[in-house]
Every structure is written in structure tokens, then in C-alpha cells.
Amino acid sequence: DLYRKVFVFRKDPSDAYVVLRARLEQPLHNFTVCLRSYTDLSRPHSLFSYATKAQDNEILLFKPKPEEYRFYVGGKFVTFRAPEGRGDWEHVCASWESATGIAELWLNGKPRPRKGLQRGYTVGATAAILLGQEQDSFGGGFDFYNSFSGELCDVYLWDVALSPDKMRSAFLSLRLPPALLAWSSLSYEVKGDVVVKTRLRE
Question: What cystine pairs are annotated (predicted)?
Fold first, then answer.
């Protein structure tokens, strides 16, 4: 249980990452991924990377610059403008549903304008899920200048597109539905220079 804990990625650039193990029984037709990050990076960096053998950017949450999020599904992406951060923690949730192709991005509990992405696509279930690096091959192929440096916590993955109420609950750290990946019961393995520390402030 990582309650009130964070992963600190100490180096910049870095070869470190965290492997997450999710209980995925079948391919995903809908999903939501949420996490909190705290960084002063201005270069591109990966937040959440989910690769299959067929597609390295099966699900990817990527920040090319401080005021922009890129959300990939099945190798295609949409860009969401993000108001320039105030150098504080940022909570981001990205959701997608296959039937409509609707992609949503919520930043600090508020939705950005919705976009269309990969309607009718199915996300593969046999996945390598990493924090801190962007995979260019299954479980590897890193470009260290896309690595994350800073603090990450509150990582979740659901096999549904969360409702607006639940998106706000995730931001406020309230009770959430059972997840494929949950911060409160995370199965993970640290690779390299990543330290688990108590969160500095709530």
C-alpha cells in the first residue's frame, strides 16, 4: 500500500523506471488512466507507457512540453493544451472508449475539450506497463531524453471510461471503483534509481 507515498525519480536524464503489473484478462475497449506528477522538467517526458508486442504506444501519456499533453491509443495521438503549470503537483486522468472514439483528458479535476481517437480500436491485454520511460519496443527501447524526473503517485488504471463524478473523485483522492492498477495495492518493481518516499505535502 503506497498511501501517502511517492516514487522519486532522482536523476535527469535517467535510465530508471518502474514496472507495474496489472491483472488484465482481456483486451480493453474502454479505459481510464490517472496519476499525479510533480516535476520541473521542461523537456519532453513520459508519464505512463503501456506497450504490447504489436504496438509500443498502445497507451501512452506523454508531455512534449509543459503546456501540452499527448494521449496515445494504438500508436495514434491527440494533443491537449494544458494551462501552464504553477510548478505544483498536476493530477491528470485520460479516458478513452472504443465505441465512440471519445478521448477525454482531465487536469486537476477539470475536463479539457474532448477529442476523437481510434474509434473501434481494441487495446491489447498482454502489456508491459512502465512509469518513467517511453517504450519504443516491448519493455525497452528507451530514449533517456524522454525519461521522467521528479515525483509520481496515485497511479490507477480502470477498464472503463470513468464518469465525471469519478474523475473528480480521483482528483480529490476519494473512494474509487476497483481498478486493474490501484495505488493502494500496487504490484510493482523498481528498476534503477527510483526511491519510495513519504509525500511531502497533501
Answer: 34-93
